[in-house]
Amino acid sequence: MPLDLIVKGVLTGLVYGLGALGLSVIYGVTRIVNFAHGEMMTAAMYVAVLLFVWAKVDPMLAILPVAVLAFVFGFALQRTVINPFVTRPEHTQFMLLVAVAMILVNVQLIVFGPDARNVMVDYQLESFEVGPLIIDKARAFAALAALAVAAALFAFFRYSLTGKAIRACADNQLGARVVGLDVDRLYALTFGLGAACVGAAGCLMLLLVDVTPMQGPAYTLLAFIVVIVGGMGSLPGALAAGVVIGVSEALAGFYFTPSAKSMFTFALLVLVLLFRPQGLFGRRV
Questions:
Q1: Residue 172's pLDDT is what?
Q2: What distance separates the 2 farthest-apart alpha carbons in the chain?
Q3: Which of 65, 147, 184, 193 has its CA 20 to 30 A from that of 203?
Q4: pLDDT at position 137
Q5: How far apart are CA 43 and CA 39, in angstroms?
Q6: Rg (Cα) of the chain, in Å, rounded?
Q7: Which residues contact 270 (CB under 8 A, 6 or more apart)?
Q8: How far apart (Å, rounded) are the C-alpha atoms in residues 201 and 17?
């Protein structure tokens, strides 16, 4: 039923949007494109798998510890490795983060092997019946959690002093330095927050799909498409674009074939680049 598919696409798209939110946050403030984004998500998924296997921790409950670990990793990575490259040419930043991505992929292959891993919780096979609609519980819970994490991030940037300082750095880095803000530390915090979003999204994605080390580049590409369609640096745009892409994938998989989903996703990207290159929520420069 098309309405079921649209609801499924919206719920899945919110998880996509949360994953892309991390990429948008990092780029919007530091102007660095995290080419290791998808690999960081798969790493978070593997951590959630380990927590489930060792301690029977539900991926929904693993969001907080995994997000904290991802924040620490992102903060340390930016502070020690990426920060010296902030002012260097973009191609050197690209090569650095691609190298980080390759390291993460190979470490995951060595530790976990190439086989797919998953978790199985009770509610993954259950659903809600809302009138004529049948909604997967796991997908619904993942979408609600994605909204909650995104709302917390929006509130942090809007109302906290640190969030306002980060926004000041994004608007005018030189002016932020002049008034005494520690821009390097704020950049590291931003990278950590972006990584935390990726960690949370990885836990939620684990409820929907299996994880393999080689999925990382696909998630990186998906996050890029979501961010470009929504508007580079726009947080609401990332969520909205995630929903649009989730719905387009669901409908394409139903009316055509599952393999056609990527074709429609890229077609949407091409249309946005042709007719609204700044993205759905981006500002024209």
A1: 87
A2: 59
A3: 184
A4: 93
A5: 6
A6: 19
A7: none
A8: 9
pTM over 0.85? The answer is yes
Instruction: Decide if 252 contacts 261 (C-beta within 8 A).
Output: yes
Spell 110-135 as b/e; 16+ CB within 10 A means b. Answer: eebeeeebebebeebeeeeeeeeeeb
Q: Which has the closest alpha carbon to 202: 68, 73, 47, 74? A: 47
Residue spans of the domains in the chain: they are 2-213
Residue with tokens 């079921």, as numbered in its chain = 4
CA angle, corner 148, sides to 237 and 203, nearest 5?
95
Q: How many CB atoms lie within 10 A of CB 196?
A: 27
| Residue 1: per-residue pLDDT | 52
Identity of the residue numbered 221: L
Query: How much is the pLDDT for 251?
Result: 87
| Torsion (CA) 74, 76, 79, 82 in degrees, nearest 10 | -60
3-state secondary structure of 211: strand
Give backbone dihedrals phi and psi of 75, rounded to 5 degrees, phi first. Answer: -60, -50
What are the φ and ψ backbone dihedral angles of 190, each rounded to 5 degrees?
-65, -45
- Pair of tokens at residue 211: 């994880």
- Residues of the chain below pLDDT 50: 285
Find, among 38, 171, 36, 32, the residue nearest to 90 by Cα.
32
Among the listed residues 44, 80, 16, the one whose alpha carbon sits nearest the alpha carbon of residue 238: 16
pLDDT at 283: 65
